[in-house]
Amino acid sequence: MSGTAGEAGDDLARSIWRTITLVVLAALGVAVLVALILTLGEANRQRDRALKLQTHSYEVMILSANLSGTIARAEASLGRYVISADTNLGQTYSADWQLAGQQLARLDQITRDNREQQALIGPLRRAFDARGTELSTIALNTFYKRNGQAIPLYYKARQSASLTEIATLLDQIGTQERALLADRTGEAMRSVARSSGLASALSVLGILLLVGAVALGWLTVTALGQRAVARAEADAERDRAIELEAAVERASAVLLAQESKLRQVQKMEAVGQLTGGIAHDFNNMLAVVLGGLELAKRQLATDPIAAQRHIDNATEGANRAAALTRQLLAFSREEALRTEPIEPVALVRGMSDLLDRTLGDGVSVAVDAAQDSAWLVRSDRHQLENAVLNLAVNARDAMNGRGRLTITAAGVTLVEGAIGTCHAGEYVALSVADTGCGMTPDVLERVFEPFFTTKPAGKGTGLGLSQVFAFVRQADGQVGLESVVGHGTTVTMYLPRYHADPVVAQLAHATPETPVDQPALDILVVEDDPRVLAATMGALAELGHRPIACDDPLTAPGMLAKVGHVDLLVSDVLMPGQTGPEMVAALLPLHPALAVLFVTGYAGEAGGEAEFGGHHVLRKPFTLVALERAVAAAISARGTAAPDRIAAE
CA 87 to CA 470: how far, in whole Å? Predict the structure, then answer.
């Protein structure tokens, strides 16, 4: 009996232990279930909050983009109204401008929760009002039939600071909102990821608890009824866990879909209207560069002459890419004209190899120069070359790659208003004529509009003729256009004649590749980028000069005092701590006869309003010959009264 009592006591103890264990497992199961429910609820709240914030950000970005488009559409309507004096176009302009005002008010309303964006709304509204005043003046002049005043005002307004400020502020608002959206989306995704990870861990724990409960149930419950109850409970827990997992998966799928939509929106915003044409042009140029370098690499050891030819082709492709960059910067008003005396006929003849390679064997090029074609113009050499090249490429396309291209230069005397709104005086007429298909009247009306092109998608940017028009007008000239369908087109650039002294005229007749004799100079080079500094130092040393390196504009005064004398200061424009113009402005009072040469990638990199004080500017990238000519020009600009050496105090 004592043995039976002992066994009964052991069974009771095991039963109590199993019961306690089952209770503990049940409590843990309830805790896991509650945690899963809370996790799912938090995931849903994060999803709803992310969707709400994304919707708000989309509204801000779309509204800022619509405002920019409405302003552009209003200005385009005004331009057509100025040209045609059609009152319907004037009403369209007025309606678009009023709509832009409403969009600005809405943008102000929906960004009130963001102090940084609200700080931009005030300047944006002032720039918008200033722009409205400028355009209203143009519209009123057109309404009262004063087109002679309206058209110049319109073209002048296209370079207005208020227009640039509007575009800049809208871009800043969009950029801020995209960054804010990216932060919010990233935080929401991280929260959902944490919730998903926690739910997965809890699900695994719940399954383990369920397995343990079933095992203990089989050991503890001997009756069939109790086993059936345990199985039913296990099935119920399993179903709930599956439902919770499915709910978490659905929430994750929704968030992933929203993330995919956000990436698509950002991708579409990054794809501009010029993507196809610019990609086409740059791919052609890169094909020349990469192909030439690859062929040169293969033939460097076996055929140095052929390798040099391939290297020259690659260099030409790189120069074409740099020229396209300068063209785009000039069109966006970020690169100003770097003017110099130029003889157009010499410039065109110097482009003969480039024109032949660009136009192909099917196009014959003839240069017809009149007796007075040796007149000089004061213009930007690269921009003038780009203008001629743009006209030649358009002519080639109009002739389907076969025909005759005639470039004519002649001096003409125009009366007031003979061509557009030109002033009376002497001009150099540089014409490009083709034997192509010509243009219909409706195409002629839009030929100078930016982004307008009749070429297939990906075959042109629509900037060619509009770039020519902008360049000529910026040079105070005019563009003439004659076209007959089936017979061809002639585009004439009328550039004001420049009267120069014999020395300047002799320099103008020289080609850009002509070296300039210059004695060895002591040159202080101020450049913060070590690679550019080393390259510039090497180039100056190669030219026979004695360069002195300075990697910080703040140390330039001390280096001048330490060196003792310099002939020329070569400086980058945008540098940390102090810009090049600021450094020169501080040095010139101490060294008034110091020659200065700025080297820069584009004119706007010192803040868009940089004052170069009349000093010579060399654009990056540059060749050794270009650097040599720039050094000579900077020394010449110092004036005949400057001493040969500048003593540093």
Answer: 27
